[in-house]
Specification:
The longest helix is centred in the last third of the chain and has 23 residues. The strands form two sheets. The chain has an eight-stranded parallel beta sheet. Strands 9-10 form a two-stranded antiparallel ribbon. Helices cover 44% and strands 13% of the residues. Helix 2 packs parallel to helix 3. The protein is of the alpha/beta class. The chain has twelve helices and ten strands. It folds into two domains: 223 residues, Phosphoenolpyruvate-binding domains (TIM Barrel), CATH 3.20.20.60; 47 residues. Strand 3, helix 3 and strand 4 form a beta-alpha-beta unit.
Length: 298
């Protein structure tokens, strides 16, 4: 199997996990795809050791991930790693290998995604294994994880939560009607806000070629208060990024509101401008500025 292609780190931006809108999975047993994924216009990349890798390939995938993120690797990459489920046959070895990696200077490990996150103790196992500052992203995929979402969000070391819709729907016995997932999504958004961490990441769309569906699902997540969306294919990145970026109309409205924000009682398009409206306008303006900055870097 080919080694990961070299990437010039001068053109590989640092990962801002809390601010990333699009996060792209790449299978851990496909090292030839690692560098290509990191070169895509994604906020971050996750090397997946769990669902995308067959049991017989787990150990090899782990070695590929560690090698690609090692400071000694030619074209060393910056990425997160999704480890295997707590209690699985591979979880302890995943943590041991990534913990050793995280203790080496100039490594490229930028976070760990924890699947089937249900208890703060699972997160504590991760943070005990890796260096301080390596953010943890608990992936909430079960009813128990949703019930414990606030405790998960408040656990030290957590950068943000993420939602795994397919496994969650299976766990609760829901149909494929997307309304069945609204409650869980709302819980994750509220828990994240209450804990003072970044807005959560929504579950990836299972559609790859139907980009209109990807855009619709991303727009729904944005409406509910999510801060980004996981992606399973590069083709999804543009649709997701566009859904989370403010529209021109919203950006123009925000500019109008901010222009009169310090003028006492005011109106814009017949709408009273009070503190919550001004704060919303500031957030839209900040998001628009961040979107422009990401485009300038790409």
């Amino acid at each position: 199997m080919r080694a990961p292609a070299a990437v010039d780190l001068r053109t590989t931006p640092e990962v801002d996990l809390a601010a990333s809108v699009t996060i792209l999975f790449v299978p851990g047993n496909r090292p030839e795809r690692f560098a290509k994924a990191c070169a895509m216009d994604a906020g971050a990349v996750i090397i997946d050791l769990e669902d995308a890798v067959a049991p017989g390939d787990k150990a090899q995938a782990r070695r590929h991930a560690v090698a690609a993120l090692s400071a000694a690797a030619e074209g060393r990459l910056r990425a997160l790693v999704r480890v295997n489920t707590p209690g699985s046959d591979w979880f302890a070895e995943d943590l041991a290998a990534l913990g050793e990696l995280a203790r080496t200077p100039d490594h490229g490990l930028r976070g760990i995604m924890l699947p089937k996150a249900e208890h703060p103790s699972h997160i504590a196992m991760v943070t005990a294994a890796v260096a301080e500052g390596t953010g943890v992203v608990p992936l909430v995929e079960t009813a128990l994880g949703v019930v414990n979402a606030l405790d998960l969000a408040r656990t030290p070391g957590v950068a943000r939560l993420a939602f795994g819709a397919v496994d969650y729907a299976l766990d609760i016995g829901a149909t494929d009607d997307p309304r069945a997932l609204d409650y869980a999504r709302g819980v994750l958004v509220v828990a994240s806000r209450a804990a003072g961490i970044a807005a959560p990441l929504d579950s990836p769309s299972t559609a790859i070629e139907d980009l209109a569906r990807v855009a619709t699902e991303a727009g729904l997540a944005r409406m509910l208060g999510f801060g980004g969306k996981l992606c399973i294919h590069p083709a999804q990145l543009a649709a997701v990024g566009a859904a989370f970026a403010p529209t021109r109309a919203a950006t123009a409205w925000a500019a109008e509101v901010l222009a009169v924000a310090n003028h006492g009682a005011a109106q814009v398009n017949g709408e009273m401008i009070d503190r919550p409206v001004v704060e919303r306008a500031r957030r839209i303006a900040a998001t628009a500025a961040a979107t422009r900055a990401r485009k300038d870097q790409s």
